[in-house]
Amino acid sequence: MKGSFATCLRGGPMKMLLHAFAWLCLLWPGHGQPAKLPDATLVYCSEANPQGFDDAQYATSYDATVAFTLYDRLVELNLDGSGVSPGLAESWEISADGREYTFHLRHGVKFQTVKFKRMPGMARDNAPAIEVFKPTREFNADDVVFTFERMLNPEHPFRKAYPTTFPYFQGLGLAKNITRIEAIDPYTVRFMLANIDAPFLHKVAMAFASILSLEYANILLDKQRASDINRFPVGTGPFIFSEYTKDASIYLDGNPDYWRPGIVKVDKLVFDITVDAAVRLQKMRTGDCQVMSYPRPADIAAIRADPKLQLPSVVGFNLAFLAYNTAKQPFDSLLVRRALDMAIDKRAILNAVYQGEAQVATNPMPPAQWSYDKSIKDAPYDPVLAKALLAEAGHPDGLTLDLLAMTNQRPYNPNAALMAQLIQQDWAKIGVRVNVVTYEVGEFLQRARRGAFDTLLVGWTGDFADPDDWLGMLLGCDALKSSNFSKWCYKPFDDLITQARATIDTNSRATLYQRAQQIFKEQVPFTPIAHATVYQPLARDVRGFRIDPFGPTLFLGVSRK
Questions:
Q1: In 10 A of CB 371, how many CB atoms?
Q2: Cα–Cα distance measured from residue 237 to residue 259, given in angstroms and rounded to the nearest whole number
């Protein structure tokens, strides 16, 4: 099996999105020559500070947005869900036993020349280790090996100098399954797996697998500043890092040496960090921003009616849910989880929080995902029965618990604080006393990953169109320290996921995933709540923008008229 341009032409499980994203197949020409970029600035009103610039450490669509502007990957996802297309790898072969992937790398790709700025007031030990990084060679196999080896090998010199965690690499099972990565020659890299991993190509197309510069990493190691890789980034991507001011902005320059000629259509890209959705919309109306993240559902009609704005949308490939910390009492009790689940009025939440711009969620993944089991039904909303179940579990006088929610809007949840208040009211009806606690996204995710909570409101946007990204990442044992927020490791479920991941035949995989969904519904490690419609406000003069159903906001091919 060999990847090629023809990969773009296959159908897929998300054909409804095909007409919107067919443009992406036009973006894979050979590497470009230095070009004069259009004299234009695009400002994106974004919702949060990045947690950093080394996306391998993070797992939010916002951090992935930043990564997709700075870096490239071996392969790139087709936005219609049909598979992957060539990226930094021009082609690839998969061995007959499905356990070796050989990537043939693109020639002539340049790492960015980056001038790092010492911001006013920045202490000397926080300033960049070097003023300018100018590569002395082109991208090659050594960079690919470095990128993955530092995640795979705890004894890697860079990993030891800068110890950190890699939630996707761990949660997707790659840390256990990749046995070796080797450079066959300067433009050929081979990955060897212990077991078949059916969605492997999709996984290495994700932001966490963005390719880093070994040459830059070695400079940082020599200067004992390995952590700068997360603060002062260097990639091969369409935009070049310029400066970042927390709570204010990220400035990026268009990359004139980008290997996809003609795709970078502005010479400046600015992230205007604006947490409040109402303020983001005001900036759109005054022309201070041309793209914004996540409007409030209450503003949809007004945006649609504004002649200065446009409002494309897609069916959300996402899920908002309430996770129970099954590693703690009393949430290790199935009766308690069933009682709490049955006491949540999802319809009321959809009306109040989403104002109808969502659909009720039943399964741990959206209906657009292949293998979705339509036969599964929710338990009825029944506070009387829920209270009886709670008493049967040994809590006739109810419970007292914390419910964590984040302050930042997410694509799957426009107002987590309001949702938390509604659940607080629902649970009060069965004697459950709730303390709602809110944190901004970075602190929230740190607490979620280490299990420092009772219950929490969180969610997921699919990274690629494969059930493994939902069932494995949200519920698998490999993801306990990353995105398995329920801390639920249930062997009958996990065995099915492991078996499905190692199975090539799609029909067989679907059967395994449907059985896993049934176990999920019986065990209730979390309560699915909603699948939100995704809206993307744009200025009227923005051209070439397409919504990525997998979460990040993409600026390739985006211009201003």
A1: 22
A2: 9
**Phi, psi values for residue 265, rounded to 5°:** -115, 10
Query: What digits encode the pLDDT tens for the residues 411-452?
Result: 999 999 999 999 999 999 999 999 999 999 889 999 999 999
What phi and psi, each to the nearest 5 degrees, are found at residue 281? -65, -40
> Tokens in use for 304?
């649609």
Lookup result for tokens 């618990």: 401
- How would you classify the pairing of strands 313-314 and 534-535? antiparallel
- Residue 10's contacts (CB-CB under 8 Å, 6 or more residues apart) are 82, 83
What tokens appear for 322 in the block? 């309430």
Which of 285, 380, 293, 400 has its CA nearest to residue 339?
Answer: 380
Q: Which amino acid is at 112?
A: Q
pLDDT at 121 over 70: no
- What are the residues whose beta carbons fall under 8 Å from the beta carbon of 70, sequence distance 6 or more? 53, 210, 233, 235, 237, 239, 240, 241, 252
Region 59-78 average pLDDT:
95
Q: How far is it, in rounded angstroms, from Cα 451 to Cα 57?
A: 18
Please count the residues of the chain.
561
CA distances from 70 to 254, 338, 363, 464 (A): 10, 44, 35, 20
CA-CA distance, 552 to 556, in Å (whole number)?
12
Instruction: Answer yes or no: are the C-beta atoms of 475 and 337 closer than 8 Å.
Output: no
What's the pLDDT at 545?
97
Q: Distances from the Cα of 533 to the Cαs of 135, 419, 436, in angstroms?
A: 43, 17, 26
Contact 14, 80 (CB under 8 A): yes
216-239 pLDDT, tens per residue? 999 999 999 999 999 999 999 999
211 neighbors 38 (Cβ within 8 angstroms): no
pLDDT in tens, 352-387: 999 999 999 999 999 999 999 999 999 999 999 999
Whether 91 and 230 have beta carbons less than 8 Å apart is answered as no
d(CA 201, CA 260) in angstroms, rounded, equals 21
CA distance 513 to 519: 10
Burial class of residue 503 (count of CB atoms within 10 Å of its CB; 0-12, 13-18, 19+): middle
The tokens describing 524, both together, are: 């209730």
Q: What is the 3-state composition of the chain as percent helix, strand, coil, each rounded to the nearest 5?
A: 35, 20, 45
Q: Measure the CA angle with vertex 63, ends 57 and 67; round to 5°.
A: 90
DSSP state of 194: S
Domains parsed from the chain with CATH numbers? 2-291+535-560 (3.90.76.10), 318-532 (3.10.105.10)
Contact 76, 463 (CB under 8 A): no
Whether the CB-CB separation of 63 and 239 falls below 8 Å is answered with: no
**For residues 391 and 489, what is the distance between their CA atoms, to the nearest angstrom?**
26
- The pair of three-digit structure tokens given for residue 423, joined into one six-digit string: 């659940």
Note the pLDDT of residue 123.
62
**Cβ–Cβ < 8 Å for 27, 543:** no
